[in-house]
Specification:
Elements lengths: L3 H21 L9 H36 L3 H22 L7 H32 L2 H17 L12 H22 L5
This protein binds fe (ii) ion (2 copies).
Protein name: Hemerythrin domain-containing protein
Pfam family, one: Hemerythrin
InterPro entries: Hemerythrin-like
Length: 191
């Protein structure tokens, strides 16, 4: 059974791969045609889905553990959650933008830079501190919760939902179901 660092690490690797791919283009400015732009739009929607699920389960399960176990954990968690909230706002604008609009590329470029900084903060500043203190058993249990939580987690950013674990746990599954229904109706879940 994978521990929480492995589970979240897989997500980070996948998100970073998507960021590299999107950064490489092509974009409208570098000559992408209609099909390539449509594919770019779908990739961005996939990125938004992955990112929304990932941050939601971190906020439900990971940051509470950091706050509880790490000395200065509140400061670390507050900083990271603020980064996550700012990113949700960008993604909420991006979800409605079209890949042929300048605004789409501006929002995406902002998100790419912020996401890399956020992932580096988690992996370099937070994970080593938590790793020292968490038991192997608890790390596995958290990994299980994070993995299970992702199955019903929101697939859209919801920047106006307070990022508090109790609120997310209460609202998360219903929001996740509603998101998936909307994704189905709008075709957002189609590759
Ligand atoms: Fe995060
Ligand atoms: Fe993360």
């Amino acid at each position: 059974m994978a521990d929480v660092f492995t589970v979240l690490g897989h997500d980070h690797t996948e998100v970073k791969r998507m960021l590299d791919e999107l950064e490489a283009g092509p974009t409208r400015a570098t000559g992408a045609g209609e099909d390539a732009l449509a594919a770019r739009g779908r990739k961005v929607q996939r990125l938004i889905t992955e990112e929304s699920k990932h941050e939601a389960v971190e906020e439900e399960y990971f940051w509470p553990a950091v706050r509880r176990l790490v000395r200065g954990g509140d400061r670390l968690a507050d900083h990271a959650v603020a980064q996550e909230q700012a990113a949700k706002q960008v993604l909420d604008d991006l979800i409605a933008a079209q890949p042929w609009q300048d605004r789409f590329e501006e929002l995406l470029a902002d998100f790419i830079a912020d996401a890399r900084e956020h992932i580096a903060f988690e992996e370099e500043q937070v994970w080593p501190r938590l790793r020292e203190l968490i038991t192997a058993e608890r790390a596995k249990e958290l990994g299980r919760k994070v993995e299970a939580g992702k199955r019903l987690a929101p697939t859209r950013p919801h920047p106006n939902t307070p990022p508090r674990p109790a609120v997310l746990k209460a609202a998360g599954p219903m929001v996740g179901v509603a998101d998936r229904m909307l994704d189905r109706v709008t075709g957002r879940d189609r590759d």
